[in-house]
Design brief:
Chain B: This is ABC transporter. Chain B: Belongs to the ABC transporter superfamily. Chain B: GO terms for molecular function: ABC-type amino acid transporter activity; ATP binding; ATP hydrolysis activity. Chain B: It comes from Acrocarpospora phusangensis. The complex is a heterodimer of chains A (about 280) and B (about 240). Chain A is built from ten helices and no strands. Chain A is mainly α and about 280 residues long. Chain A has a domain of about 150 residues: MetI-like fold (Orthogonal Bundle), CATH 1.10.3720.10. In chain A, helix 3 packs antiparallel against helix 4 and helix 3 crosses helix 6. In chain A, about 25% of the residues are buried. By secondary structure, chain B is of the alpha/beta class. Chain B has a six-stranded mixed beta sheet, with helices on both faces. A four-stranded antiparallel beta sheet of chain B has the order 2-1-4-5, covered by helices on one side. The longest helix of chain B has 16 residues. Classes of the chains: A mainly alpha (about 280), B alpha/beta (about 240). At the A-B interface, helix 7 and helix 8 of A face helix 2, strand 6 and helix 3 of B. The complex binds adenosine-5'-triphosphate (ATP) and magnesium ion. The site of magnesium ion has 5 residues of chain B, from helix 1.
Chain lengths: ~280, ~240
């Protein structure tokens, strides 16, 4: 039996004021952005070295000639990323779950998982790329991979899995113990409790930090260049060596930005949504 | 024959003995209310019965099987005991229906269709038929607590443990939950409740147990405990 709601004059006036305030905010934001950009550009252009920098870093011709090769190389970066990411997710969750096993028979597994995360989080990615990329082939093991892309992917997976495992573990530990108690009291086993109750809640919470790690993985695919495959950075290096013009690096940078910025905005969006949900609850 | 027998159970946390040799027998269809001051050990006793805590001495028997036997499988025993906590502990990432059907499907091997039918029947019985697809955070406190009770019932437990299921609710919501418990008593469910609602305890219990500092000081029918308590500590707790 609801009465139809006709907005009162008071509410209409209120909404008009809110709209006016919104317009003022947009104007203020635009003005201040324009001023900052203009000042920054003016400072750079007025600097004594600018003409030379423009020539070596912002050459349109060099950009156009190098771009197809750099783009082709960049596809290899994307490929490396697409292969490494799912492997890292699965292994990371696996390591986190192993670290959560309490039964004594699992002690060796648990100890190995702890040792692994401790060690690999401590090694700089660039070092790991060298160690795996040159160390594994030097062993001359039967069946060990020798292709630099595969070796690069292995090094990235080793390094990032240790980070991602810790992210998952913190997510798992953030689920309140009463949730486990409730699940166990319903008769669910440890495994079922993890699978149906704890992990789904943990995963939801760690999506923003995980995406953050993946943005940095996207960039670190460039480190595989050290092993020689013709990815974006390597292609850019080749062009730079030929022409002594650094613009190809800029081309590579732009491509990486084009990939990571949407990811960063998406992360923000998810984090904001999670915050709103917490606020509701 | 008793459905549940508690025989000289001790529980200590570090140096603090929370349960000091508690004895209690619960018959089938009996409703037992545990009363006592905050910290007297009511929740601890319920958690021991559900094997969420291991006892430090004594034994607990369910249907004449010793469930505190270290060789017993806790998961198997918990299938026969339902527990509802003070804070609702519903799974926030699942709908009401999934909360209720999880254990029947995954633990008891009931088919999804059958589990759902049974869950809907229980929801209808307790006035929540339209909430099946809702997530817990969209429910009122009283509704959440009723869902938690239904979730515990959905596995057809032999024994239901209820730990202060109304203490987080405001007074107007208390009655809807108490109504559910009344109906369960009528249907013959064996229950042990920890509660601070004295008038409700008097109304529903077959036996009242007064716990004081981990000791079961006095137990008997409500009329006896509330009107003619024998022990001075019981008198002091009830009449101040
Ligand atoms: N995990 C624990 N570690 C240490 N001490 C604990 C633990 N759980 C409970 N205790 C202690 O055991 C005692 C009994 O607690 P319990 O929760 O059983 O009391 P209660 O009778 O349920 O009280 P309330 O009416 O407030 O719920 C308290 O002194 C409490 O501090
Ligand atoms: Mg309690």
């Amino acid at each position: 039996m609801s009465v139809d709601w006709i907005k009162s004059d008071r509410q209409l006036a209120r909404e008009a004021l809110l709209r006016a305030r919104g317009r003022r905010s947009v104007t203020a934001a635009t003005t201040s952005t324009v001023i900052v950009v203009v000042v920054a550009v003016a400072l750079i252009i007025a600097s004594p070295g600018w003409p030379r920098v423009r020539e070596t870093f912002f050459s349109w011709d060099a950009l156009v000639t190098s771009f197809p090769d750099v783009l082709r190389g960049f596809l290899l970066n994307v490929f490396i990323f697409m292969i490494a990411e799912p492997i890292i997710l699965v292994l990371g969750l696996g390591v986190a779950l192993v670290r959560g096993l309490r039964a004594p028979v699992f002690f060796p597994l648990r100890a190995a998982a702890t040792l692994y995360t401790d060690i690999f989080r401590g090694i700089p990615v660039i070092l790991l790329i060298y160690l795996v990329g040159f160390g594994v082939p030097a062993l001359q093991l039967q069946g060990a991979p020798s292709d630099p892309v595969t070796l690069g992917i292995i090094a990235l997976v080793l390094s990032y899995t240790s980070y991602v495992a810790e992210v998952f573990r913190s997510g798992i530990e953030s689920v309140h113990p009463s949730q486990r108690a409730a699940a166990r009291s319903l008769g669910l086993s440890h495994g079922q409790t993890m699978r149906y109750v704890v992990v789904p809640q943990a995963v939801r919470r760690v999506v923003p930090p995980l995406l953050n790690d993946f943005a940095s993985l996207q960039k670190d695919t460039a480190l595989v260049a050290l092993l020689g495959p013709l990815e974006a950075l390597r292609q850019a290096q080749i062009h730079v060596a030929k022409t002594f013009n650094y613009t190809p690096y800029l081309a590579a940078a732009l491509l990486f930005i084009a990939l990571t910025v949407p990811m960063a905005r998406f992360t923000d969006h998810l984090a904001a949504r999670a915050a709103r949900q917490r606020g509701d609850g | 024959m008793a459905l549940l027998t508690i025989d000289g159970v001790w529980k200590r946390y570090q140096d603090h003995a929370v349960l000091r040799g508690v004895d209690l027998a619960v018959a089938p269809h009996e409703v037992v209310c545990l009363i006592g001051a905050s910290g007297s050990g009511k929740s601890t006793l319920l958690r021991c019965i559900n094997l969420l805590e291991t006892v430090d001495d004594g034994a607990i028997y369910l249907d004449d099987q010793e469930i505190t036997d270290v060789r017993a499988d806790p998961d198997e025993i918990r299938k026969r005991i339902g527990i509802v906590f003070q804070a609702y502990n519903l799974f926030p990432h699942m709908t009401v229906l999934d909360n209720i059907t999880l254990a029947p499907r995954k633990v008891h091997g009931v088919t999804p269709a059958q589990a759902e039918a049974q869950a809907r029947e229980l929801l209808a019985r307790f006035g929540l038929a339209d909430k099946a697809a809702t997530y817990p955070d969209r429910l009122s406190g009283g509704q959440q607590q009723r869902v938690a009770i239904i979730r515990a019932l959905a596995t057809n437990p032999r024994l239901l443990l209820l730990d202060e299921v109304t203490s987080a609710l405001d007074p107007t919501l208390v009655n809807e939950v108490l109504g559910v418990i009344r109906e369960l008593k009528q249907s013959g469910m064996t229950m042990i409740l920890a509660t601070h609602e004295m008038s409700f305890a008097r109304d529903i219990a077959d036996t009242i147990c007064f716990l004081d500092q981990g000791t079961l000081v006095e137990h008997g029918p409500p009329a006896q405990i509330f009107d003619t308590p024998q022990n001075p500590r019981t008198r002091e707790f009830l009449y101040g």
